[in-house]
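Below is a filled-in request sheet from our internal design queue. Each sheet records the structural input a requester submitted and the sequence that came back. We keep these sheets so that new team members can see what a complete request looks like end to end.

REQUESTER: design group, bay 2
PRIORITY: normal
MODE: inverse folding
CHAIN LENGTH: 321
BACKBONE (tokenized):
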């Protein structure tokens, strides 16, 4: 049975993804606020309205939704929520929510260029279609309010906005100073590491974001906050956030060194490395595994432990330094 503890009610909703359920949070304050909005499936909606009713509410009672990030499992049910809802999120959420056609042209080209650079062979259009297929379960809405680092939101004043980019280019977390609670979205998860997903920059002129480097910086940022509990986007709450962060950073470093060993022997493309790292799943989960591979390569380049060179066809090869 769902219930409020310290004005926070955790509502777990089903998703069709490997990650399993997604957690959204109803926050009692001057204004009834929902953190994230599940995925756009009938199952998720039924589960959501049922659990809301257990708490004594209907979707019409929710006045504002605050997004931790733009991924479909965190925004989809916005589609079926009341029209007059305020929707807060990082500015990067905007083009995804309103399906901005200009943005998606640049978005698609961004991935085509990357597929080429990575040394992928085959039908890029169908690869991209697969990469984008979760967007079907996203919402078609508009962000009403852009929020950023340090902001406070009316009716939700106890919480301060922290920018925690990495897993997504839109990722925000929310920190309540009086008791150290953190609404962490997918920034920290109890049992799995967050994938630093490859996503295009907001402006087509900008360089490709380096999500693993952003993610590490966002993880280290948590050391500046006394966190009693983190409410996460998937799975259980995390009590000992700082030691979890240390473990995550260490594990990432270990995996990067494993990649460094691979490129000591011979120059390899991103796709070569991806296949070696994830022989069983790279075909099924190309987006996640290429993101994870790029994460390690970006990291190795950042610590000057690898070198990247392009061949005459524009395919990138990596060697150890
Ligand atoms: Zn996500």
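RETURNED SEQUENCE:
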């Amino acid at each position: 049975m769902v219930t409020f503890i310290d004005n926070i009610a955790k509502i777990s909703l089903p998703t069709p993804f490997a990650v399993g359920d997604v957690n959204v949070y109803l926050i009692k304050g001057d204004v009834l606020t929902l953190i994230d909005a599940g995925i756009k499936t009938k199952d998720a909606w039924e589960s959501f309205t049922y659990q809301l009713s257990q708490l004594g509410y209907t979707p019409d009672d929710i006045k504002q939704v605050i997004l931790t990030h733009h991924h479909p499992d965190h925004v989809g049910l916005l589609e079926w929520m009341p029209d007059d809802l305020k929707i807060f999120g990082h500015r990067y959420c905007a083009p995804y929510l309103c399906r901005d056609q200009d943005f998606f042209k640049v978005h698609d080209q961004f991935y085509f260029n990357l597929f080429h650079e990575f040394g992928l062979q085959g039908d890029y259009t169908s690869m991209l279609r697969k990469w984008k297929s979760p967007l079907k379960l996203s919402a078609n809405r508009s962000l009403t309010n852009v929020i950023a680092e340090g902001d406070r939101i009316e009716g939700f004043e106890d919480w301060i906005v922290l920018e925690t980019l990495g897993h997504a280019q839109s990722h925000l977390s929310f920190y309540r100073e009086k008791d150290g609670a953190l609404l962490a979205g997918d920034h920290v998860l109890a049992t799995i590491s967050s994938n630093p997903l490859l996503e295009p920059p907001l402006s087509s002129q900008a360089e490709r974001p380096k999500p693993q480097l952003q993610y590490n910086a966002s993880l280290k940022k948590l050391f500046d906050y006394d966190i009693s509990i983190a409410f996460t986007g998937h799975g259980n709450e995390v009590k000992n956030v700082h030691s979890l962060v240390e473990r995550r950073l260490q594990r990432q470093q270990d995996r990067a060194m494993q990649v460094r060993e691979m490129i000591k022997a011979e120059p390899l493309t991103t796709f070569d490395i991806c296949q070696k790292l994830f022989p069983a799943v790279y075909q099924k989960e190309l987006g996640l595994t290429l993101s994870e591979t790029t994460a390690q390569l970006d990291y190795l380049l950042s610590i000057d432990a690898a070198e990247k060179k392009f061949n005459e066809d524009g395919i990138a090869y990596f060697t150890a330094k």
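SHEET NOTES:
- The pocket of zinc ion is lined by residues 69, 71, 74, 167-168, 186 (CB under 6 Å).
- The mean pLDDT is 96.
FILED BY: M.R.
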